[in-house]
Design brief:
It is a single chain. This protein is mainly α. It has a domain at 24-62 and 132-284 and 408-457. The protein has 20 helices and four strands. It has helices at residues 14-18, 27-34, 36-42, 48-65, 76-88, 105-131, 139-162, 171-175, 178-181, 184-190, 215-235, 239-251, 253-258, 262-281, 286-304, 307-316, 319-337, 377-403, 410-425, 434-452, and strands at residues 195-199, 204-208, 347-348, 371-372. A two-stranded antiparallel ribbon has the order 1-2. A two-stranded antiparallel sheet has the order 3-4.
Length: 457
């Protein structure tokens, strides 16, 4: 579903007579991205998205009411199908699939409403960012903001490396009653910390997480944002900024390796392979030389530093493989039992993968009661929203990749690479909240590139 960019209002229209400025301010988008370290430190974090969605929605409605049409992104009908399926699936919230913890629907409702609120907020972000004009928010500025988020990710990774136990009580957290802020889910939203301390390769070690809350989210965002750093570096005319960008990219290798995040490593490979193919097909064969040089530099870094041993240790220790296989099997069993609308949300397994009598406890928090659908966006879509919701979600981003496939600009290749990496990441990462936010912003940039008709910038 696509709306054509509106023509200028006729002379003498009510809009002109009223002298109203119907331009959309850029501050809701720039405020989220530019000030995200502040939101994280305050304890708002991902909660900033629904908070900023309110003024964005008001501004869109106000402009629409004044006679300015609202543009919808190509393929938006697919996304609408996903949202409708997510709402309809609530009807199955009271169902207790086999070998899952029995719970009343009311107890599952808060988590479901949270996810729906986030999906709705990011829908507003998509529409708002896509309806901004080049005058209101230049695409190059949005690219720089996303590149800045990659820099923030790297800084958070370095913090997790050198101060893995760093954490503090945020102001928002202080305002919450103890009974609420002590809950694990609430704590994950409002309590800032640098890293997750986990035993992956022998002994508990910090895995970078700041400012995204989880190591897996950190790795997912790393892959989604790194293309924008490359675009920003290539577009700048200031040598100093370009050098800093390349230095940031070089430094980022350390936290990327220390994170022990195999999904991140695979995702980076997908991004590089996709972007390389796109540029080679466009006749830019020099990219092959650049990729070979980069690969050689990384290989030398791994061999000459302890990072190589860290990578090998992670590859030799696949402790999570069994749990992931177990959860995928449970997700597919649930999908087979409720293939159309799913179950409205995730469920916890009854026990662990070896016995239903093994459960989570204070002594062993990861021994059982695993979350079905918590090990990848694809499995969550199938389990929670069924075939209809999954088709809507995948159809939207898949349609975008197809629709904008001829965009050979730097923005076009970077945006497409980000979306392609998200398709591989959904096998082991969940997308809410910040990864999906960066996905819709990538979609908005591809969409605006298409609207402006500039696909070579």
């Amino acid at each position: 579903m696509t709306a054509v960019a509106p023509a200028a209002p006729p002379a003498g229209s009510a809009q002109q007579r009223a002298g109203r400025d119907l331009s959309l301010p850029a501050w809701p988008v720039t405020g989220i991205l530019l000030l995200y370290p502040l939101w994280w430190a305050l304890g708002l974090g991902v909660l900033i998205f629904p908070l900023f969605a309110v003024p964005m929605l008001v501004l869109l409605i106000r402009r629409r009411a004044a006679g300015r049409p609202l543009r919808l992104p190509p393929g938006f009908a697919w996304w609408a199908i996903f949202l409708i399926a997510a709402v309809v699936s609530i009807a199955a919230l009271g169902a207790d699939p086999a070998q899952t913890v029995v719970e009343r629907a009311a107890g599952r409702l808060p988590a479901v409403l949270y996810k729906l609120a986030m999906y709705a907020s990011l829908t507003v972000l998509l529409l708002y960012a896509g309806n901004l004009t080049e005058r209101e928010l230049p695409r190059r500025r949005l690219v720089r903001l996303l590149a800045g988020m990659f820099v923030l990710t790297v800084l958070g990774g370095l913090l997790g490396m050198v101060a893995g136990t760093f954490e503090f009580t945020a102001p928002v957290e202080w305002l919450l009653p103890h009974g609420i802020r002590s809950k694990g889910f609430v704590r994950s939203l409002v309590h800032p910390y640098a890293a997750q301390i986990m035993d992956i390769v022998g002994g508990e070690k910090p895995r970078p997480a700041a400012p995204w809350g989880y190591t897996n989210t950190w790795g997912n965002n790393f892959c989604l944002l790194v293309p924008w750093l490359m675009v920003a570096a290539a577009a700048t005319h200031r040598r100093g900024r370009r050098v800093l960008a390349w230095l940031c990219l070089l430094v980022s290798v350390a936290p990327a390796v220390v994170s022990l995040n195999r999904g991140l490593w695979i995702g980076l490979g997908v991004v590089v392979l996709y972007a390389g193919i796109r540029y080679v097909l466009a006749g830019k064969l020099w990219v092959l030389g650049a990729l070979a040089l980069a690969a050689a530099a990384i290989a030398v870094a791994l061999l000459a530093t302890p990072l190589g041993g860290t990578v090998q240790a992670r590859l030799d220790n696949g402790k999570s493989n069994g749990v992931r296989s177990f959860l995928i099997e449970r997700a597919m069993d649930g999908f087979a039992d409720s293939p159309v609308i799913g179950y409205g949300g995730t469920r916890n397994t009854l026990g662990g993968r070896n016995s239903i009598t093994v459960g989570e406890s204070s002594e062993c928090e990861r021994c059982g009661n695993f979350t079905i659908g918590g090990n990848g966006q694809l499995w969550q879509l199938l389990y929670a929203y069924g075939a209809v919701g999954t088709a809507g979600y995948l159809g939207f981003f898949g349609y975008g990749l197809w629709r904008f496939r001829r965009d050979r600009s730097a923005i076009g290749v970077a945006g497409s690479a980000a979306l392609v990496s998200s398709f591989s990441a959904m096998l082991w990462y969940n997308s809410l909240v910040t990864p999906l936010a960066f996905m819709v912003l990538a979609y908005a940039l591809l969409w605006r590139n298409w609207i402006e008709g500039k696909t070579t910038n």
